[in-house]
Amino acid sequence: MTWENFRFALVEKAPEALLEHSLIVLITIIIAILISVPLGIFLSRPKFKKFGLITLNLLNILQAIPGLAIIALALPILGLGMKPAVLALLFQSLLPIVRNTIAGLIGVSSDIKEAASGMGMSRGKILLEVELPLAMPIILSGIRTATVYVVSMGTLASLIGAGGLGNLIMGGLSLFRPEYLIVGAGLGAIMAILLDRMLSYLEFRITPPSVG
Amino acid sequence: MIELKQITKQYPGQAMPAVDQLSLSIPEGEICVLVGPSGCGKSTTLRMINRMIEPTSGIIKINGNDVSNTDPDHLRMGIGYVIQQIGLLPHRTIAENIAIVPRLYKWPKDKIKKRVEELIVMMGLDPEKTRDKYPSQLSGGQMQRVGVARAMAVDPPIMLMDEPFGAVDPIARTHLQDEFLRLQKEIKKTIVFVTHDINEAIKMGNKIAIFNAGKLVQFGTPEEILTNPINEFVENFIGHDRVVKKLNLFHAAEAMQPVRCLVHENELLNAAQKMKDTGTEVAFLLNEVGKSCGHITLADLKEFGEDLVGLRKKVLRTEKAFVQSTTSLPDALSLLLEYDVDYLGILKGEELRGMLSFKDIRKHVYRKEGD
């Protein structure tokens, strides 16, 4: 191990890898939220509750498929690069968000919904102004779980040429340069922890003050 | 005026309808209490008025308009709704909670702010301290006040209250009831009030509707129901102490008789003569500044004769036996027993207005029964 290799990995390789990695995480999480939250809302409506269990089981299976396998399976269709990577990561991140959205919305006290409806708030207003705000801490906690998953699983994306911190790790492995490996894995861990703390703080900020 | 005509609510899969062929007219500006054992259909009936539940058959009219012709959200915006669980939004401040319905009506901001302030004061809370708090930071009684304030925000002519004071402790409940009754004297809303507590019904109701098994059993004023229960169910429901409950309807001032004999404290021994002159058996005593400070009966004077010390002791025991004229008869009765005296002096402020004995209470109730 040499200091020179560390410096090179940190200064020359890491910025680009971090940027790519952040981009993959960001795109994946945004798409996951856009799919999962509406799906969760839909599945928590009384009329569609019966589909809830089936959907959750389906997502459970999707999450159980190893990310590497999905990447491999998606390769023939989506080719190399970011697209199959995002798809594979998406499968991993849908479940926690959908599950928490449903749990959060169902957990909103029926008394509060009854009072809101009794005052003449429409269903849409109740969803936007009562249910979602009250479920938000739990939904955010699902997003947090998904984000941490995606940051760590995202290192596999380099296998299909999507870049990211995985490049440093794989590079370190194949070149026998542990410095690259440490920088790549270390930055991934720091990124995961930072995002986790940030989202957890956000969660804390939006949770209404409770008894105590 | 709320009219319910032949209302039936049948839930699928249930043998008995929850509400069965119910007809009821709720007059304007009064509190109508729906009362009965749990599962009797009283809450279902209340919730059909603002269409939280749709009746299986029958018509509900508010001021002549069939409610099923009005959009449910619009209908509910115009009817105050208070439930036992209150249902304040935990993520909104007290001011925001009260402002919900005004915001649905799209009132301008400063009008909402003014109204919220007004309501917080009306509910006996401090606006400065309360406005920006969250519901969880208030006590149960305070939350319930906010619940009532929120329901009154746009001054709706009708209010539906489903066991509104059911979740607070007995002391806070009595307080809330008293305050609400005082408020109702000013605001004169048409109120439908659900409770399972017959005492609350007697206290709050201008009219009481007693429900059992989805049917209206008896409808009338508290006095009518306590005097003439229509059947055994009502009799059992109001309890065998119905005459004692009826006392709740009266104040001390209504049953009292005038004081005919006043004696100065230092002329105790002349009291017998004075009582004879006025033909009464009791004399109220005045102290040196002319304030009434107890009473003495003919029987006491006979018992103690010339024993001034004994008499003074006896008088001292009646020192506290005074109540305000607005005291309810059950409280007065209880105090008669507590002080172990034959008479209570009835005061209005500091001034002695009359006196009340067991006999006066009995006569008053009996006279009312006879009417």
Description:
The complex is a heterodimer of chains A (212) and B (371). With 212 residues, chain A is mainly α. Helix content of chain A is 83%, strand content 0%. In chain A, helix 1 packs across helix 4, helix 4 packs across helix 6 and helix 7 runs antiparallel to helix 8. With 371 residues, chain B is an alpha/beta fold. Chain B folds into 2 domains: 244 residues, Rossmann fold (3-Layer(aba) Sandwich), CATH 3.40.50.300; 119 residues, CBS-domain. Chain B contains 18 helices and 16 strands. In chain B, the strands form 4 sheets. Chain B has a 6-stranded mixed β-sheet, with helices on both faces. A 4-stranded antiparallel β-sheet of chain B has the order 2-1-4-5, covered by helices on one side. Chains A and B meet through helix 5 and helix 6 of A and helix 2, helix 4 and helix 7 of B.
Query: Structural class given helices, strands, pairing of chain A?
Result: mainly alpha
Percent helix among the residues of chain B?
40-55%
Could you tell me the radius of gyration of chain B in angstroms? 26 Å
CATH superfamily of chain A: MetI-like
Span from first to last CA of chain A? 54 Å
Largest interface: A-B, 23 and 27 residues
SSE arrangement:
The complex is a heterodimer of chains A (212) and B (371).
Chain A: H1 3-44, H2 49-64, H3 67-78, H4 82-107, H5 110-118, H6 123-153, H7 165-175, H8 178-206
Helix pairs in contact in A: 1-2, 1-4, 1-6, 1-7, 1-8, 2-4, 3-4, 4-6, 5-6, 6-8, 7-8
Chain B: E1 2-9, E2 19-26, E3 31-35, H1 42-49, E4 57-62, E5 65-66, H2 72-77, E6 79-83, H3 94-98, H4 100-104, H5 109-122, H6 127-130, H7 140-151, E7 158-162, H8 170-187, E8 190-195, H9 198-204, E9 207-212, E10 215-220, H10 222-227, H11 232-238, H12 242-246, H13 252-255, E11 262-264, H14 271-278, E12 282-286, E13 292-297, H15 298-304, H16 308-317, E14 322-324, H17 329-339, E15 343-348, E16 351-357, H18 358-370
Parallel strand pairs in B: 3-8, 3-9, 6-7, 7-8, 11-12, 14-15
Antiparallel strand pairs in B: 1-2, 1-4, 4-5, 9-10, 12-13, 15-16
